[in-house]
């Protein structure tokens, strides 16, 4: 009787599952997205229309017959997404990958980095804040096409991407699917290493910290949709990690999951110690702190606000006292293009670069501007913007980095250079 009842339950489940997908075609619904590319590894993200097999073949462009194949089955429990990771790759090598799902096929090409990037420099583009209802791009165009035109070495998305009301699993999943269906997104991310973090609106309610009720749902859904190199440390939940491209080390920060306003911490002790240790050990010329919120803005959930100002001071003091050079920040949240120049001790400064939002009505600059702000740009109707930073090699004795703020409407709207002396390198 026990066995029979369980067989009836299984058969009922099988019938409902079959009925759910009856008449639907197994194919690639979103992606591929390329991520976590290093000298010897790469990750590829894909989503299928219904649960089914994903087959990815990878080969050197110069030797297409020498293929490596990975196979994975997507399941409804992870919203039909999966991430396949390849290791033991060769540095400075061009690879082609082909994703096959049912009768559908997509492909991409990438080059694994090598030490030679230290001599060539690195170009990254980045953005945040995409609200489809405020997108002013013409049909069949997108801000993602504009970003791709810069031919970057990597792409970073800094949160509020997508917008949700409360960070529930379904909201995060549905928002990501809409974003990844926009013209140009696949072309940008299929062959350019892409990384992401969340901020408040794609993690939970406005200005939230990690105490909100859907925090675990938001974290789990984020990890389904982003092929980052890793996610936090064992026993300490979050999305923080670091990776190196050329002579630049990027530290992706999680300013939400471990954040506790009541305890005056944005990162939590484990993540804060991890960051300090990573900065001190880094051998890269440039160290980039990737934050959802600005380092200079005085706002409740920002680094300069009343809850987290003490932690910012502690971080800046560490950077100054340990003589760590080449540290800058990039951030989002505010819906305009800003640059902060924040004193950290002696004659040293920390620069934070925020581009305008990808698709939002931009917020007007503060009037008057605070003494720590050296640039702020916004224009009504200029709703689609992104940022770029070009990291120059050590051979350039005059320029270390160049920040550029672009808009689809007005092109290059601002450019700012920092010298090696500005960054203490």
Describe this structure in words.
The chain is α+β, with helices and mostly antiparallel strands and 425 residues long. It folds into 2 domains: 28-111, Immunoglobulins (Immunoglobulin-like, Sandwich), CATH 2.60.40; 117-418, 4-Layer Sandwich (Purple Acid Phosphatase, chain A, domain 2). It contains 8 helices and 20 strands. It has helices at residues 2-21, 117-120, 143-148, 169-179, 185-190, 215-225, 268-281, 309-321, and strands at 28-35, 42-48, 53-60, 63-73, 81-86, 94-101, 104-111, 122-127, 154-158, 194-197, 241-245, 248-252, 286-290, 327-330, 337-345, 348-354, 373-377, 385-391, 401-407, 411-418. The strands form 4 sheets. Strands 11-12-13-14-16-15-17 form a 7-stranded mixed β-sheet. It has a 6-stranded mixed β-sheet with strand order 10-9-8-18-19-20. Strand 8, helix 3 and strand 9 (154-158) form a beta-alpha-beta unit. The longest helix has 20 residues, at 2-21. It starts with a helix and ends in a 7-residue tail after the last strand. Residues 1-19 have low confidence and may be disordered.
